[in-house]
Each structure stands twice: as C-alpha cells, then as structure tokens.
Amino acid sequence: MTRPVIGITIGDPSGVGPEISLKALRNEEVLSSCIPVLYGDEAVLRRAAPIVGCTKEIVPIGGPEEAKEGRISVVSPGVLTGPYEFAKVQGQCGRAAFAYIERAISDAMAGKIAAVVTGPLNKEALHAGGINYSGHTEIFADLTGTKDYAMLLMGGGVRVIHVSTHVALREACDRATKERVLTVIRLADKAVKALGVPEPRIAVAGLNPHSGESGLFGHEEIEEIIPAIEAARGEGMNVTGPVPPDTVFVKTLRGESDIVVAMYHDQGHIPLKITDFMGGVNVTVGLPIIRTSVDHGTAYGKAGKGTADESSMVSAVRAAVQFARNR
Amino acid sequence: MEMKRKKPVLAVPLGDAAGIGPEIVAKTAAAGFLEKHARPVIVGDERVLRLGMTIAGKIFPFRSADSLEEAAAGEGLALWNTGSLDAATLELGTVSPVNGKEEGDNLAACIDGCRRGLLDGICFAPLNKAALKLGGYGFPSEHEMFAHLYGITEGFGEMNVLEGLWNIRVTSHIPLKDVARNITVESVLDTVRLGYKTLRRAGCEAPRMAMAALNPHGGESGTCGREEIDVLLPAIGAAEKEGFSVEGPFPSDTLFIRAFEGKYDGVVTMYHDQGQIAIKLRGFHHCVTVSAGLPHPITTPAHGTAYDIAGKGICTTSAFEDAYALAARMALGDITER
User: Fold this and answer.
1) What pTM did the predictor assign?
2) By Cβ atoms counted within 10 A, which residue in A129, B6, B17, B277 is the most buried?
3) What ipTM score was computed for the predicted complex, to two decimals?
4) Residue among A166, A173, A247 minimizing CB distance to B224
C-alpha cells in the first residue's frame, strides 16, 4: 500500500506546536504509516530541533511532491525569519501560523497532500496579527468554501460530534434546531463511514437534563431533536435517541453506539477529556479535504522546554491516515 | 465517659418494589454490610423483602417488628414490617401508582422516625419518580419531597459523591435554556454555602472547592458568554469573604480531571449534566446521591430502579453500599456532635 502524504502545520511558533510536530516525526507508527511534510518556517523548526533533541536533517522543499524519507521535509513560507519569543502573544507568530495553514489548505485542495494535521494556534496572536478568524475550524471552512461542518472529537473509545461549539451556553440552546441536528447526524454518518464502519450506529444526546423528561423541563427534544432523528431514520440511518446526556457516553463506552451527537461544546468535551485527556483528536467534518488536529492549545507554560507531550499529535496523524485510506 | 461510640440507627427503605431495590437490600444485608456500619432497620413489607431475598438467592435471619419503636430498639438486623404491599400482586419492572404510594409513604414514615429521634439517618433503595407521582407524591425530585416533609423551604439540594469528590449544582431539573438566567451571585453563593456545610458535616474540615464555568472555555474573556465575568467571579469573591476556599471559574471540560486527582474536595457546577456526565462516566457503579441541607443524612445510590434487570438478581450493590457507608459516617458525626 502506498503511504499517504500528510501535511502537518506546526502551529503558533511561540507555543509547543513546533516541538510536538518534530517529536511526532520520530514516532515509528507515524513514519511507517505516512510520508509527513511539515508546514512551517525553517527558522522556527531549526530553533525547536535542539530543544527536543531532533538530529535529523531539516530540508526545505518547494512542494510536498519533493518530500523524502529519513529527513524532515519542510514547506517553509518564509514568513517568520527574525527573532520571536516563546510563550508570548505576538502578531508575527499569528500571521506565520496562518500562512502555514493557508499553504497546507491550498496543497490539500490541489490534491498534493492527502490530509492536513494542524498544530495548536493562539487565537489572540491571530487577532494581534490582523487575522480575524476565531480558530482553525473557521479558517478551514472559509478557505474551502464549506457551509455545513462540525467538530468531531475522538479518543479513549468515544467519538463525539458537536451541533454547536464556541458559543455561550444560552445561545447553544437556540442552535439546536431540527435542521442543524439533522445536518450533524448526516455528517456523523459520513465521518464514521469514512473510518471504515459500513453502518454507523449514531446516538443523539438530548439537550436538557434527562432529555427533558417528556417536556417536563425543556421542549427542544420534542420540537427539534426527535423530528431530526426521525428524518435521519427516514434517510436510512441507524439513529437512537434522544439519550439522556449523562448516560449516552456511558453507553457508547459500552459499545452501544459508534458516535454520539452532542448538542453543545461541553456536553461533548467533558466526557472526551475524561476518557482521553492526552491523546484526543479533533476532526473538522464536512470539508472537501481531510483535517485533523491536536486537541489542546499552545501550552505556553511548556513552550521552549521540550517537555510537551506529542501523543495528541500522533493520534491526529493516525486519524488523518485512517481517513485518507478510506477515502 | 463513653469510650466506644454508639453506632447510628439507619433506616433502609426498600424503595420502589418493582425495581431492583429489594434485591439490592437483600444482597447487601446477606453480606453483613448493613450491620458493619450502623444499626440497620429495613423498612418495607416483609413479603417484598422475602421476594428480594428469593431473587437474590440469599437467606439471612432478621428480626421482624410491627413498629419502628420496636425495630429500632433492639440489636441485630431488624425489619420494620410496614405491611404495606403484597408481593403476590407485584409486577416487576412496571410503573404503578400502588407501589408509588407505598414507597412514598415508607419514606415519609422514615423521616417522621428521624424527627422523633428514633432514627439517625436514611439510606433508601431507588425510587421511581413516575410511580411516586402517580401515587400522590408529585415532586420534581425526592429532595423537594423530603424538604417538604421536614417543612424546609430553602437551603437544601442534591449532591453527588464519587471517590470522595462531592458535586453540588446551582441549577438542577430545569430546561437548559433557563440555566443562564438562574445563575445569580445569590444562587451561586447559596450553593457554595450548602456544599461547604455538607462537606464539613461529612467530616471534611476545610473543604477546598472548585467552581465550573458556565460557558465553553470559561467564556474566553467574555467572547462566548459573560456570566463568568458578571456573576461567577463576583460570587467567588463574596464566598472568599465568608471564609470559603473556592477557586475558579474553570472550563468545565478539564476541571473534573484535576478534581478527581484530589486537588479539590468539592466541585460547584452550574447545571445538571455538567457534573453528571463526568461523574457517571468516571464511576457509574459507585455514585452516591445525598439530600443536602436536611437535619438528618439521607443518601441513595445515584442509579435508578433499573426496571430492565429487576427480578434477575444480577444487580450490582456497590453504589448502594457506598451510599449506606456515607450515611453512617455522616450520622455518626451528627451523634458525636450532639
């Protein structure tokens, strides 16, 4: 089997992204399953290499087609060449991180890489650099012209996809509409199929405590979620729910479903962090390209120290390879 | 001076007779667990207890008494035979108004026994909310029912305990969209006070508490929700002024990991599922529910009547045992204080 070329954006240079990217490239599983290409400035990687004890040759390449084994192949846009500090919000770092993503997306859209794996961004640095996106997901959606997408988290035996993410809890309730829930059920079905499960069993969580207990506390289940589930069943999907939010994850861990549809950010993130604090993977589902990501931030407290754990990055590469193989 | 502390007297109502309650109690009693931690008085119909023993396949001696006075007075495993339900008419795994009234009446009788000084606390087998409602006990949850029976109108609520970590929430069984407007400095502060008081009563002398944020990522400096800035931070400030140790607000997706590592004794959550998801995932078979703010300790396993497995004798007793041991510990503290 030919190994897919996987692009890894190294994230904000001021955080742990460059370090965990280099660390992941000495992982046997990563090296044997794909041909990795880093997207990041050469100068940034040369600075990070001794910190993590990386002795492999760092080679800037013109494009992913030039990637070779046994060395670190880097697509270097040359944005950040001067000095920068670790663990500090800097506009130039935000701009650099954005440039890496832009280039990787463009290469993925052109079919030059099979997937993009992203290192952690700092939102404030993006904004300080004049890049007005609220995060990776929005950048990918915008640059690929995608309207319907959702955040999928995987780890520790749990897959959970979100109806809404970074909005206030009050607003999250308004976002749980029949239309959006149905869209996310469809995305869930597609994503799990893309992982090689032919008939995904989808469990949809309720929004309210005990799923509202027949309307006793909350009507969203009756008015929005159940109609969405019925519509999805009408389309032939295997959907159960609404399942009370506090038991749906216990059940999925027992193997009763392949994916959970969560109604809001913390409903999906609380269980995922408990089942897999270190190795969680974040996937943007619905894009025309494959994008997976580490499930943590820039971890400024560890930047420049070489101590950051790369397991989430390794898991993200593993997931990207898996999606790429089933494409 | 009394050297050996007296064991507390705990009532053990069988709960909803159509559920797994009677078999759980039978299994636990047969293992000698009830007598180890307290002086137990099982409360219910003797025919129902015997059915539970048959299902569990456990035979053990007990002293059957027709009044609570008699049951609570003697030594050994006692049953207060309420004569309230004929096991022959019982249909396992179904909601019934007859069972609902019976389980509600027995609980009310236990609270009456606590108030009369005959009992030091209660650990009840699972109730069925739908049955209770049909049986005339139409309360949002058992906590409101108990408070009502005590004549208490505020300062009570549900707490959940797992692996020594206590969770209390500001809001409970309300629509999620109403949560934000129910998060006020006063309601948060009241919750902290109740949690603190209950933890102290359970033997934690200087509770360290952590508060969960309401919004994702703790609101990210107000960009996805302002309640952290407008309500939670002022509430924490006020709590600190009252001498409580409360840290936060912390993003709720990572808070529980640190809390389970032992960094905190209690976690204050904003809504039902914020804590329930974490706790049930971490240890479904050891979760205990405590009715906080009442004059006597009242505990129960966090799981329900499990109608789907009632009568099969396969239920696990671990959560019930944890609930019973906790009630015993809290009751012992109360006795020592008196």
Assistant:
1) 0.90
2) B17
3) 0.89
4) A166
